[in-house]
Amino acid sequence: MKHYDFVVIGSGIAGLSFALKAATFGSVAIITKSAAHESNTRYAQGGIACVTSAEDSFELHVQDTLEAGDGLCDESVVRSIVTDGPGRVRELIEIGVQFDGRPQPTGLPKLDLGHEGGHSMRRILHSKDATGRAIEDALVEAARMSPGIETLANHMAIDLITLRKLGHVSTDRCIGVYVLNEATGEVITLRANHIVLATGGCGRVYLHTTNPSVASGDGLAMAWRAGAKIANMEFIQFHPTCLYHPGAGSFLISEAVRGEGARLLNQQGERFMLKCDPRAELAPRDIVARAIDAEMKRTGAKCVHLDITHKPAEFIRDRFPTIYQTCLRFGIDITRSPIPVVPAAHYQCGGVLTDVSGSSSLPGLSAIGEVGCTGLHGANRLASNSLLEALVLAHRCCGKLVSTPIPDPEVWQVHLPEWKSGNVQDLDEGVVISHNWEEIRRLMWDYVGIVRTTKRLQRAATRLRNLQQEIQEFYWNFKVSTDLLELRNLATVAGLIVDSALLRRESRGLHFTLDFPGHSEDQRHPTVIQRSDP
Ligand code: FAD
Ligand code: SIN
Predict the structure, then answer these.
(1) Alpha-carbon span 449 to 237, nearest angstrom
(2) Rounded mean pLDDT of 153-168?
(3) Residue 200 Cα: closest atom of ligand 1
(4) Catalytic residue positions?
(5) Superfamily assignment of 2-234+349-413 in CATH?
(6) What integer pLDDT is reported at residue 108 of this predicted model?
(7) How far, in Å, CA of 176 to CA of 182, rounded?
């Protein structure tokens, strides 16, 4: 069994940024369940929201974030993350990330700033329309070059090890993690002074999502099982514009396209956003996604259209090369034709409840990036605030952990038992896993989507309880596999979303229910849930 100062689970912007900093203070292992670069981060298009221009101000960015969050952001958290942004962005530039713009003799380069929904200013730093790839490539390379970091790719964290799970009743702490080596099927046990969850979001819990397959909510489910507090899981963000094409999977059409003037049109070619919000296509995401959903239901259409053909073709090809090329592969020339689009699940605004340095309610466990919930996003995340939050939290978390005394040495004498597999049969019932997986994702899409009702949520809750029981039987009886573990986590996270949604008896931000269509002042607080029997 290996003992590290820091075990980081996940290799997106949050995990890698943390690991690079922590490696100067101690030994670091990064556990990541696919190739090192595979993450939501890699697919980010629009960019990072950060105040860098003379016309902009921290106050404007704070106000835009609060407005998008619909009364549920923690203002002091918003203020502190927004003001830390420029310093963290400068560090990204120092490790080689190139944002579009012209270099200046001093300070940050004069950047070409993008515009997105809910922002009152142009403030999005980007690398064309593939910002995430530029960031992820630079971070993966920096981690590869760092002698203090050991990266275990294709290793999936299964569960956290806590003192309480080992029978200690007086005190609890996260002290290790079981990890599946996907190549050998062996489960290894790692001990750590600090465990940092950076496992990203849970988009795969929905049938239609912009997220890659790694986003199955594993970190959130592990933290829940370990007894950490979870907050605001009812607020799942649906991105308004995902390419609608049978062969395209869930390819995102960045909000930056609307930022450059693209218009949403219904089947009749009418610009319907004008009657929904004075900001029209650049209203916050919850408003635009709901308006599209309503328009599709009203007209019976399977999609709406995003039209940027009024802009010069050369500009479109240069500013959005990835979107242009991808759409072209599906027979759509976006310089000449509107793009068919639909909303899709995109971002988890809630997560493991943490302070502004990523510390969770469980000692020894931090959560940073999309898996955490600091209070920045409230009921709806402002576009491009996610990469910003991940960067700032990685920095803060490292600062806090290196200055936190590690617990008494007795904790490290506690014996960590080896992983025990069930009856160790290979799971040849693959069809059961794929069936349950499909059922959860469809059920979430149909019953727990953009517009909800109590009846549909209750139906989802009942069905999920049965599925969870069935999956739990598989989990105990069969040898674990990535698919089975992901299915178990997906079922857990789906249950947490539904339970949180049932607790919120109002509509706010991304949680819209026909049974309680307005705001309710006495509900203006985060939804916090915690397992009673960890
Ligand atoms: P991720 O980048 O998702 O990384 C999570 C890591 O954890 C992955 O390496 C994964 O393999 C690993 N992992 C998960 N479970 C386990 C496990 N059990 N064991 C081991 N490893 C595990 N946000 C913005 O601010 N601006 C944008 O322009 C933007 N565009 C986006 C476009 C798309 C298509 C998508 C999907 C998201 C976009 N977002 C954007 C959101 C943003 O990309 C993510 O919120 C952010 O990248 C999350 O970073 P992270 O480090 O927390 O998680
Ligand atoms: C996009 O480019 O539209 C995604 C931005 C985000 O999710 O913040």
Answers:
(1) 10
(2) 96
(3) 53
(4) 285
(5) FAD/NAD(P)-binding domain (3.50.50.60)
(6) 58
(7) 19
Ligand 1, CB cutoff 6 Å, lining residues: 9-15, 31-34, 38-41, 43-48, 131-132, 156-157, 198-201, 210-211, 214-215, 218-219, 252, 347, 369-371, 384-387, 390
Using an 8 Å Cβ cutoff, are 501 and 379 in contact?
Answer: no
Is 384 a pocket residue for ligand 2 (Cβ < 6 Å)?
Answer: yes
Q: What is the pLDDT, as a whole number, of residue 428?
A: 63
Of 354, 238, 324, which Cα lies nearest the Cα of 285?
A: 238
CATH 3.30.420.10 fits 430-528, yes or no: no
Q: What percent of the chain is predicted at pLDDT more than 70? A: 97
Contact predicate 357/311, CB 8 Å? no
C-alpha of residue 47 to centroid of ligand 2, in Å: 7
Q: Select from 116, 292, 377 the residue to mutate for testing ligand 2; criterion: most ligand atoms less than 8 Å from CB.
A: 116
Cα separation of the two ends of the chain: 24
Range with lowest mean pLDDT among 96-110, 269-283, 353-367: 96-110
CA 341 / ligand 2 centre spacing (Å)? 15
Given a cut of 60, whether residue 388 has pLDDT beyond it is: yes
